[in-house]
Predict the 3D structure of the following.
Amino acid sequence: MFKNILIPISSEYYTKEVLKRGVFLAEKFKSSINLIYIIEEKTLNQTDKESDSYRTPYEIAETKNEIRQKQKQTADKIVFEDAKFYLKNNKIPFEEKIIEGEFSNVVKREIGLKDYDLILMGFEKECALRYRLFEEVKIPLWVVNKNDGKSILGVCSNLAPNVKVPDLSLKLSQTLNLELNMIYVVDVEDSVEVNEKAIRSDKKTEKDLMISAENFKNEIEKKGINIELLRGSFEKEVIKATEIYNPKIVIIGREQKKKGILGLPIKNLKRKLVEKCKYSILFLN
Amino acid sequence: MNKQIFLKNGISNYKNIISIIIAFLVLAIFYILPSPEGLTHSGQVMIGILIMAAILWITEPIPLAVTGLLIMIIQPLLQLITPDEVFSSFGNQAVFFLIGAFILAGAVEKHGLHRRIALRFLSYFEKSPRLFTLGIMISCALLSFVMPEHGVAAFFLPIVVSILIAMKIAPKKSNFGKISMLSIAYGCSIGSLGTLIGGARNPLTIGVLSKLPEPINVTFFDWMIYSMPIVFIALPIVWLVLQFSFPIEVKDISGAKKEIAKQVNVAGKMSKNELKVLFILIFTISLWIFLSSHTYFGLAVIAISGSVLLFLTRTITWQDVENRVPWGIILLYGGAITLGFGIQKTGAGSWIAHTLFSTVGINPYIVILVMIIFTILLTNVMSNIGAVAILLPIGIAIAPEIGISPLLASMLIALSGGLAFMFVIATPGNAITYSSGYFSTKDLLKAGVIANIICIFIIFIIAVVYWVGILGI
């Protein structure tokens, strides 16, 4: 399922959990791991900007170089050594490299170079990263959280095509030997339906949405999967469900929520979910 | 010129263009509007220039120094003060003191003397992780007495990161890592209050005071007498704030000991040039402390003498001066001192003070407290020297209205202006240490808010009890 895993770690944020989870998945799926340590250029440039009038270009360059060297040492002596520690008894193909640039740009460039089928990464709200990546990549993206439950929660809704989530959730639950639970959220704030080609319909009535949801539920239950129908705001219902099901991983499809409370435009839905969710999330994109 | 290069190097985005338009629009409004009673047209335009400077220094669409130049040329252009008066700002000895101090600091940096001193200091604090963080803070503060604070932060960062890496401490995961880095940032900021060398806002303050209609001359030693109690009270208290904010989880300090020993070993024996620089530094600082009053040599003569000695002993070359003296600060200084002069001369300062107190009322203690709070808030969102440059003329004008001396008001603003603890953008020291990745913006804010609140009270108490009560300023 996941043959080539890309693990990007930013100089802005590092957690060992990502490496542990990467090695765990690589063992299960016989994958290769590519670990890249990204020296965040935004942070380096911010130092430049703040020092602009107080220090000379020579001194600024000197400091920037020192910071760059120390970041490289951090990658070599902490991050890569941790990775090697977790990999020591495994024969997982592993590559590592250090790149300077903006996190999302570097990752997007990297996935253009190799046939990756999973990005595995951590998340930190309080840092300089904007995580544009969540909205801009087309391959599965697994955001690791240290809370670890014992099931898989597959999330479907009227806002997504709901094609990949049921199948992949089932496969993952079998491979990882975890119980599978599913929810279908009827989002009442953005009352459209998204078809299999990911095209949004015109506005629908809540009754129509509920009928579609019931039909979907029946289809899923035929496969022997438990599925619960929920009604409300997509993000709030998902977060509530995670508190109930205590999952190891929440699987979310290509949700296209564009309107929130009072029909106001909504942006960065995925980032908001990651911020609020205490569990790991796999976006299938 | 290639459009992309222009966009990168010139006015790079719409936000910057909007900032510039708003700044000039404010000035235009103040120029066009009729003046209120008690304020001359020149005074009103001067207030417009002050607000324009504040907008440009906060939003930074152009370099801080260019805003300084703009302030200088705009005053004669609008016929507020004469070109001679504007450019006489550069005749102030504080300018040459700054140049001399930068050359001395450049020599220290060139020969790595600062690194040797830092390692020596740190080696005294290897007993426990907690003590070690205190060592970082004290070392940074002491070095900021003799070098600009940003330089200290920049060279301390790699030393401490090497130690943290040797201890296998990962960025953002360890409270010890957080405190170590924040100790650099806060140690440098607090230390920079101690002498005239630590921050350019200190010479700016004495420059503005010396240009008053009744000049006030502050010597190097006078400054230390006023500021040192704040430094030595704030240092341990802010260190305690860090300890309570981020309880240290590390128990074993042996990794740090080994790394310091390794770095001391790499540094080797003191070279001849280091000895020469050390001797000249001690000599110059001694002269500053004991002989910098106007009856003796003055600050600038000593600073330039120290610099010339460095050239005579061939410990520094002109290329080093070009590499290490930030001329932008000197230009910014000119703009800032002119701003103060213009505010005083046009009567804008007195009008602001009078208007403020006719509505708010006069309670000197409340005004002192508000001055400290306002300066600390402003210095957290803009450059320290910019904040001091804007508030100093207003503070000096307010002083007689509430019955305190201009010196007291200036010291309150100058010292509060150095305490930028809360945001990464507040001071280069914060940005430099943040780049290590060991603390988050939230960590900085969490510790910074508490540290700033405590420092507000420290400065207030020192001002009321020590400056007014004991020194009688």
Summary: The two ends of chain A are 15 Å apart (CA to CA). Chain A touches chain B at residues 11-16, 43-44, 46-47, 49-56, 58-59, 62-63, 66-67, 69-71, 73-74, 77-79, 82, 124, 126-128 (CB under 8 Å). The mean pLDDT of chain A is 91. Residues 57-87 of chain A form the longest helix (31 residues).
